[in-house]
Structures are given as structure tokens and as C-alpha cells.
């Protein structure tokens, strides 16, 4: 079921210039819990999910989200990525499958297979031919194995498993130059939940660790020129990527060096789960969830 706002809570959608630090409040709601902004290819709009639907939101102060008719789909979760053609969107739904749907309205098409796996979309290759997703599988006793990174043709077809180990992996996203898949993983953890940022080649080889600090780092998003990463950094000791945490939106070079803080927000889950860079590489978009009387 889609997340909702508790009384006294707001969801606020911001854009942020990563060099100047200038922040713009695009929309604020006390009714709908919005999550996970993407940008349109022309930079004029954001796409966010809320109440199990996808919305288009013009960039600029005081804008109002407009619901997009994606046809007969199950409720959406917060994983949606634009097709590079600019006319379709790939979405994860609450039936645990990934679909491709036309943004102008029409019939969606399911991509993922009936393999007993839960599928969580995070990335699409620059040429639009391949999706990167996180897959979860349960054993006969109903115990969930650690999530791993998979790819699948965007037209549907055979899955390819890229990681297979005892440590959770998540947030798999292609770099715009097509050379890497970035992801977060606990494979170097010192305590349970201590995720850091990694990258690997699109065939699963050449895994490199990018960050190594006391915080818990999730959802690396690669700038359009493939030179920088924006990501969500949780407090030490956090397990998973929960909501309602004091998190830091951070920026670093694509190799993990030069880390700096962009914004301190009350959020976490939903703040920046999917690719959130503007097409010109100047700005990111994110969501926070302040509590009345406790946050600005």
C-alpha cells in the first residue's frame, strides 16, 4: 500500500543547484506523500509518485502536480525511471513487477518474468535497451535471501544476475556513459546495515568500492556527464533505508572522492530513491517530510 502522511506532516519537493547551493521549493503538500523525483528530458518538469500514482510537476515555485494516466496498472511504489526516448516511463508496482508505460496515456506492458522474485527498478541503460533492478527471492521456508543486482532487456527477456553474495545490494543505476553500474552494498560492512557506494562494469565484473566512512550511504545517482554522484547518507547504525531520519544529501566525484554536503533533511525513504539530476547537470531534486513544530 502506498505511503501516506501522518497528521502534522508535510512532503516538500525541492530543486537544488549543486554548485551554488540555491534551493527552490517547488511544491508542498499536507495531503499527499510524494516521493522520488525524476526530471523530464527537457528539464521543464519533475515526475514524482504519490498515493500509488505518477504525477508531473512543472519546475518552479508554487507548481501543482498533475496525475498521469498510466492505464490499468497496480499501485506504484517509489521506483520509476524515464525511458531515454522521453515518451515512456519504467515503473515498479506493488505486484512486484516492472512495467513500461507511455507518458501520454495508453496500454502499459509488463517487462519482468513470473520467477517468484520481487523486482525493484533503479536504472535504465543510456540506449534504453537494458534495465537494472534489485531482485529478492525467498526460499521454501519463506526466508528472504539478500537482495542482488540483476539486468533484463527493456523489451523483456532473460534476466542476468550480476551479484550473488551474502550481503544486501541495492540502488543499481547505469552511468550515462554506459561504462558502469553504480550501487550501494553492505559487502564491506563492519556492522549490519553499514552500506557504502560501489560500482561495477555492466557485466558484473570489476567491482570497486567508492566510499568508506562511518555513515550509511545509499542510492548513488550519476550526473549527466558521468562525473559526479549525488546520494543519500543515513546516520551511523541505520539498517536499510528507512523513513523519518535526519539524512544528508551528499555530492562526490564519480570515483567517490571529494565528498561534500548539499542538504540536511528529515527524510530518507522517498527523498531521492531514483535518478534525480536535471538534464543540464546543474541541479538535483529531492523530497523531505518535516514534522510541524520540529522542522523548518
TrEMBL record:
Q: Which SUPFAM superfamilies match?
A: DPP6 N-terminal domain-like
Coiled-coil region(s) at which residues?
none
Q: Which InterPro entries match?
A: 6-blade_b-propeller_TolB-like, WD40
Which Pfam families does this entry report, sorted A to Z? Answer: PD40
Superkingdom to which the source organism belongs: Bacteria
Q: Which family does it belong to?
A: Belongs to the TolB family.
Recorded protein name is Biopolymer transporter Tol
Instruction: Please report the organism this UniProt entry assigns to the protein.
Output: Brachybacterium conglomeratum
